[in-house]
Amino acid sequence: MTVTNTCVTFDKKINEEAPCILACPIRQDARDYVQLIARGRFSEAFRLVRERNPLPAACGRICTHPCETKCRRNSTDAPIAIAWLKRVLGDNFSEETRKITTEKYPEKIAIIGAGPAGLAAANDLALFGYSCTIFESNSTPGGMLRMGVPPYRLPRKTIDNDVEFIKKLGVEIQYNTTFGADITFASLKEDGFSAVFIGIGLIESRTLNIEGVQLGGVLKGISFLNEVNTTGSARIGKNVLVIGGGAVAMDCARTALRLKSHKVSVACLESRKEMPTTDFEIEEAVHEGVVLYNSVGPKRIVGKDGKVAGLETLRVKHVFDEQKRFNPAFYEGSESVIEADTIILAIGQASNLSFLKGQDGIQITRGGTIVVNPATFSTSVHGIYAGGDIVLGRGTMTESMAQGKKAAIAIHNALRNTAIKDEKWAEKPAVPEVLPSRISFIKKEQKQEMPVMPLEERLNSFDEVELGFRLNEAVKEAQRCMNCGAGALVDDNLCVGCLTCVRVCPFEVPEIKRGDTTAYIDGDCQSCGLCIVECPAKAISFKTPLEDCGRDALEAVFQEKFIQGVKPLIINFYCQYGVYYEDTIDAIDDAFFSHVRRVGVLGLGKVDPSLYLKAFELGAHGVVVTACKDDICHFCKDREWVERRTKFASQLLGGLGMEPGRLRTHFVSSQNGKEVLELALRMVEDMKNLSSGQS
Amino acid sequence: MIVASSKPFQEIKQMLSGFKKVCVLGCGSCVTICHTGGEKQVIELAAQLRLSAKLEGREVEVIEDSTLRQCEWEFIEDIREVIQDCDAVLSIACGIGVQYMAERFPKIRVFPGLNTTFMGGPTEQGIFWERCAGCGNCILGTTGGLCPVSRCAKSLLNGPCGGSQNGKCEVSQETPCVWHQIYDQLDTQRLLATMETIVPPKDWTTGMENHPRKMILEHLVMKK
To answer: Which of A90, A341, B121, B209 is most exposed by smallest CB count within 10 Å?
Structure first.
């Protein structure tokens, strides 16, 4: 569905989107929720995430975050921890803010499988106004999230929370209902379902065609994980070897460690760099004690007394051939044996298409996946749609959700005979890499580390290893975001080509190209706002309505009941970058402040001096501007501008006959410490003592 | 471009005293570029006026607007609707714009918010210097491209005078002696010999001594 609450103003010249957003299969508004967190606006950030993402808490934990791979902050130091920031939202906020449509359509939709694809399809179809029933063969929702992903990476409570949210939309889930056995296409039709979405995933583990796979102690990866994830235990030995190099292999290995195996190893064809999972997962596995055997291929499983004794391997020459096809080759005579009493096969999953019996016409591939129209996710049979791993073969959680979401739109279009589109999926160019000459102007800022459970405690339970950011850590991390693609935009109709922006930008971004009469600001804009304030023609603004440069916050202060009765009333303009500079927050916002109201702006370089006048016009008796000291200034250059603007505003106020002390500027180390408190309180006292003026 | 500076606020306040509805009107060309008459200054000045009224307990409505150029009838006609209910317009255009406004809207009092000062340009962000006096008889071709009429305190045509000290004008140590600069420039261009040529008295009737001046481009004048 089309979400419009973060409308970004694009002009024809710079129709560029943030790479983090383009990289996401569901086009999650990564930049915008990160920017909201950077301002401490958590509820709005959660609302924004939830509008596109039906599983935010799960996604914040196990998403492979291609957004971070593409994050432009990679060119300066390290990417923003976008997924972990989403997790903060999913974990700490649950406010129901979705706009639920009042329109209800008569059609019923059947969704097969309560995994990411099915849940996403049901979520979006319910938001459209359809009644959806999910049929799930297990007794709990989540699909592979629950069967395959261990609880130490994805606690079950988080899946349940996400699913509860979807159920609140009216989505019904029928558990213990197996498609093909308990229900069929025919029975669904009889029951009046107008469309079916198949999102059953790949539930079988692939097996190896080598000697010894039938031996006792050879387990299949997904079955093993499912057993442990469901019952909390599984019968394994003390020396476990996992075959495979992907995410499931890492999950099997780390799960085996928690079942108190003495030794857990992973053997895979790929070299360390070729392994088909994220570095982070591999590092965590190794950190916990898993031994990696890279570039070895299984030749046969060695047995003793009908049970596994080890794996005979061959050294790998190459995994992929010259055409980059999977075609492993081995060195002859390189056999060696890795001892093991349990072998877990985690070399991929396969589909179980037994439900198709009696349903002719659904086209399938040689690999056992369902063929769909890539635009509509419609199968070769009218009214039957499919998405997720059963279509992708091997996909990620977000890819599956994207297919569910796209199928939801297609189903709606087919049932209503409409052609609506989700504009978020429109093709747009990405904001290019940061120009090398500008990198040195951008301040390097330490990425926040994810707090984790100590190693010695981890292996004793299946409790979650990553503990999640605290809110102040999340804000600090989010404040590293460069706001790509949403920075300053020049209105060609207003620009007079005065060159002010070209001269004041600390990052040397604006330019007036030869032959042009107006300024051009490219995607390297860091959103400091200096040009926006200084532009004499007011031709520059931010592309998103998110940044109001303090105006809304100031107006909000004066919406407060009885505010006009507060005497003296002091407005404190402060830099939000400095609020979470210290780990310990004194939280002066919460302190009882009868005379002081705070207006936070992400960088005081965004504040126009006329706003200080506006504060007085609205009823303030004093304004205290607390800006960050140079060493903590995010943009590095704000100080000189804050100084000259408050001096200028003081002159304007002086022209009105106002006392010079009514507007003060201080440079502080933290915006939440005692220093700010003292400065504000001193101003309150001084204003009380002023005999003339408004107070 | 035309450079203009803001009038002291007290003077503006005095001019506008007694008016209940005032429009602060910016101009989108020269004075925008010199940061005294653009949209930004409209906002600032309007805020000052409102605050001033509030402090003194006066009721004044201040509206804000701008035109692309106040020295064009068509552009200022566009704001007729905006200002028709106003008692006064504070134009922060140059003197030309103020006059155009006054002529086009004779029933509305129009006041200048700026002092139009000179023709010049920014030498760096925030610093503007006079560069042309509009003498109507340009001699820049003989002075290395530096104008002694506008940049010499005495408008000397045969400089420098005895007041040139270490490259500075005796009138102000901040002001470079343009004749010193002309000498250096001609030296660079290997044209120092031209300094020997005595320039005869200039015909000043082409300049400010002959108000009002007028220019007619016959090929563009359209019959009414």
So the answer is: B209
- As assigned by CATH, the class of the A19-97+434-469 domain is mainly alpha
Q: What is the pLDDT at residue A693?
A: 45
**Residue A134: enclosing H or E segment and its boundaries?**
strand A131-135
Q: What H or E segment, with its residue span, contains residue B26?
A: strand B21-27
Give the chain A residue nearest B49 (alpha carbons).
Answer: A656
Q: What is the CATH number of domain A487-547?
A: 3.30.70.20
**Chain A residue with minimum CA distance to B57:** A694
Instruction: Kindly report the nearest CA distance between residue B175 and chain A, in angstroms.
Output: 24
Tokens of A417: 């005979």
Spacing of C-alpha B66 from chain mean position:
18
* Tens-digit pLDDT profile for residues A384-436: 999 999 999 988 999 999 999 999 999 999 999 999 999 999 999 999 999 99
Sign of CA dihedral B103, B104, B107, B112: negative
| Chain B residues close to A538, C-beta within 8 Å | 38-40, 43
- Nearest-Cα distance to chain A for B101, in Å, is 20
Architecture of domain A551-689: 3-Layer(aba) Sandwich (3.40)
What is the arithmetic mean of pLDDT over A287-304? 95
Contact of B40 with chain A, judged by CB distance below 8 Å, is answered with yes
Measure in Å the smallest separation between the Cα of B172 and chain A Cα atoms: 25
Which residues lie below 8 Å from residue A648, measured CB to CB, with a gap of 6+? A609
Q: What is the dihedral of CA A253, A255, A257, A259, to 10 degrees?
A: -140
Residues 6+ apart with CB under 8 A from A236: A219, A224, A256, A259, A261, A342, A344
Q: pLDDT higher for B155 or A280?
A: B155
A19-97+434-469 and A108-202+354-419 in the same fold: no
Query: What mean pLDDT is predicted for residues A137-159?
Result: 93
Distance from CA of B201 to the nearest CA of A (A): 38
B67 touches A: beta carbon within 8 Å: no
- Reported ipTM: the value is 0.88
CA distance from start to end of chain B? 31
Give me A258's structure tokens. 């928690």
pLDDT confidence band for A356 (50 / 70 / 90):
confident
A99 pLDDT above the threshold of 80: no
- Residues in chain A with CB shorter than 8 Å from the CB of B125 are 500, 503-504
CATH architecture of A108-202+354-419: 3-Layer(bba) Sandwich (3.50)
Q: Domains of chain A: which residue ranges? A: 19-97+434-469, 108-202+354-419, 205-350, 487-547, 551-689
> What is the domain class of A205-350 according to CATH?
alpha beta
Helix (H, G, I), strand (E, B) or coil at A21: helix
Query: pLDDT at residue A302 above 80?
Result: yes
Residues 439-498 of A with CB under 8 A from B: 494, 496, 498
pLDDT per position as a tens digit, A440-495: 999 999 999 999 999 889 998 899 999 999 998 999 999 999 999 999 999 999 99
Q: What domains appear along chain B, each with residue ranges and CATH number? A: 2-117 (3.40.50.2300), 133-206 (no CATH)
Cβ–Cβ gap A694/B55 under 8 Å: yes
Q: How far apart are CA A34 and CA A481, in angstroms?
A: 7
Place of tokens 């407060």: A560
Q: How far is CA A592 from CA A301, A588, A615, in A?
A: 71, 8, 21
Instruction: Please list every residue in chain B whose beta carbon sits closer than 8 Å to the beta carbon of residue A503.
Output: 125
Q: Does A537 touch chain B (CB under 8 A)?
A: yes
Q: How many CB pairs under 8 A join A and B?
A: 66
